[in-house]
Amino acid sequence: MIANPMLGVFLHWLGGLASASFYLGYRGVKGWAWETYWLAGGVFSWIVAPWLMALTMTNDLFAVLREAPGSSLFWVFAFGVLWGLGGLTFGLTMRYLGLSLGMAVALGYTAAFGTLLPPIFRGEFSKQVLGTHSGMVILFGVLICITGIAFAGAAGISKERELSEEQKRASIGEFNLKRGLLVATFCGIMSACFAYGLAAGDPIKQITLRHGTPVLWQGLPVLVVVLVGGFTTNFIWCLILNVQNRTGYQYFSSKLRGEIPARTAEPILESAIDAPGEEMAVALAPPRSQPDRAPMLANYCFCAIAGTTWYMQFFFYTMGETQMGAFKFSSWTLHMASIIIFSTLWGIALKEWKGVGTRTKWLVALSLFVLVASTVIVGYGNYLGRR
User: Which residues contact 365 (CB under 8 A, 6 or more apart)?
Assistant: First the structure.
């Protein structure tokens, strides 16, 4: 199969759109605590959708997994677990640096480490990236992407400066730059472990290709394993919160007992990948009253929609990766840029930036322009490498 980098860029845009949009499904959930709807949706994100798509689109899934080297299965799973652990510190990043600066720093680290470390570990960075014209163009695109993330963070900071002093203290009550940067570094590296898990699954991709799976779907068996790792971390933490907040009954009973814990007060488990979509959805959410009963069927349906939409970001990611040729590591940059692009566009469409000052509007526009340019540059670098 001949690589088609421009098609790959488009597929990564679709993945970014799914990532930026998935949290909207959760806005329809009523009466459930965060840990309940996150785990209910996560069953679809990390178990149902990956297995269903892999069983449908690939050949001999169970035989492929049986033939896969134990070391590959271990590292793919382990990186999935570590990606989940990154979410444990994402909330601390927001607490110490504020939403906009914290998100920009964490996303910047995630984009840089998730893109550059896989080729470094493979021993390809010096020869394949630094030693080729196409590799240098891609590296330039990665730097442009990180610059775009910085502009997006600057836009958020500019918006925060327009808040009243009381609002500022409420949003960043524990600001600590040194501690926040340390936590953000850990969070960014752990969140980038998803990219490491996909890279560690290369032997599994080769096996599924030998079983006759089309090239476009070769990454789906790897997603099954890495997402089981992510499910493990999220499952354990959500159950801990269910016990701590006494919300475990919500999975089975519509009758609500007591107040739902405040969203901002919870120790949330999310990675830098999930955050932009949630930021947009939470910022635009209307006030929600406390119902007496939870609409169980509707809640599970909304969780299924949100969870499946979340999975689709990596469904398109693995497809896009197959089109990037020798420089498939650049897929992570395209994915991160696309998430921020579409999260920002959603925010503009739904008037999240309405009423902000001229400087903030220019920073938003500049971040969009730079991020879109980075995807084009990375795509062009991959095109050069194909020639």
Answer: none
User: What is d(CA 31, CA 49) in angstroms, rounded to the nearest whole number?
Assistant: 25
The CA-atom distances, in angstroms, between 122 and each of 84, 196, 205 are 24, 11, 16
Give alpha helix (H) positions in 201-261. Answer: 202-210, 220-245
Q: Shortest CA distance to 187 belongs to which of 99, 113, 267, 264?
A: 113
Task: Report which of 373, 107, 273 is spatially closest to residue 365, judged by C-alpha positions.
Answer: 373
Which residue in the block uniquely carries the two structure tokens 């960043």?
Answer: 172
H helices within 266-295, ranges in order? Answer: 275-284
**Sign of the dihedral through C-alpha 205, 189, 90, 235:** positive
Residue pair 46/231 in contact (Cβ under 8 Å)? The answer is yes
d(CA 82, CA 87): 9
The strand ranges marked E within the chain are none
pLDDT by residue (tens digit) across 313-336?
999 999 998 888 777 888 888 888
CA 370 to chain centre: 20
Q: Which pair of tokens denotes residue 233?
A: 């971390």
Half-sphere exposure of residue 186: CA atoms within 13 angstroms, side-chain side: 16
pLDDT of residue 43: 95
**What pLDDT was estimated at residue 225?**
97
Q: How far is CA 287 from CA 211, 283, 290, in A?
A: 52, 11, 10
Q: How far apart, in Å, are the Cα atoms of 4 and each of 21, 116, 228, 262, 359?
A: 26, 22, 30, 47, 38
Identity of the residue numbered 274: D
